[in-house]
Amino acid sequence: MTDYQNDSLPDGVVSKSQRKRDMDALQDLGKELVELSKDTLKKMQLPEDLLTAILDYKRFTAHGALRRQLQYIGKLMRDVDPEPIQQYLLVIKGESSAHIAWQHLLERWRERLMSDDKMSAAFINDFPSVDPQQLRTLIRNARKEQAESKPPKSFRLLFQLIKQAIPEPGKPRQQADEAADDAYGEDEQC
Question: What is the domain count for the chain?
Fold first, then answer.
């Protein structure tokens, strides 16, 4: 005799309601993706068909077309691991604890380098890819700027150099390098 009072499912079987909740969550993630800029989307290394669908969504103006395209994006998201996308979105929003900890690490290194000359040798030992001459020059110029109450151009460039040397956890090295190069180039133009 079947026990109708027991609503539990066998192990490994997901209820239809749970599958719908999962699909809605993927569609919501797709909504967040369509709000990002083209450049940010390209940096995320999304599958080509998903990227195309998101860019198509941005072209559409009719309400029905947008709704259907969003459902299609949700369908494509089923084949993609959502975890890296969610982590990247958290980093963009500034809500990732790993990202915040990394930024604090960069700040601590900059403060140590500014306060003590011996720390530059420790930094070079820990991160041998850094150009020692460039590091010392930036430190010297940043100290001079602070003493003369000038705008902190070298102070910012020092931060970018540290950022380039210490990759962000959870990001591939290539993306971390590109992000540092972009930011470094922007500050150089100031």
Answer: 2
- CA 175 from centre of chain: 9
Q: Which of 162, 164, 168 is closest to 108 using CA atoms? A: 162
| pLDDT over threshold 50, residue 181 | no
| CA nearest neighbour of 123 among 145, 108, 101 | 108
Lowest-confidence segment of 2-6, 42-46, 124-128, 184-188 by average pLDDT: 184-188
- pTM of the prediction? 0.52
d(CA 84, CA 132) in angstroms, rounded, equals: 35
Instruction: Kindly state whether residue 10 falls inside one of the protein's structural domains.
Output: no
End residue of a domain, out of 30, 61, 93 = 93
Same domain as 109, residue 62: no
Of 46, 24, 49, nearest to 36 (Cα)? 46
One domain, residues 144 and 162:
yes
Which pLDDT belongs to residue 182? 47
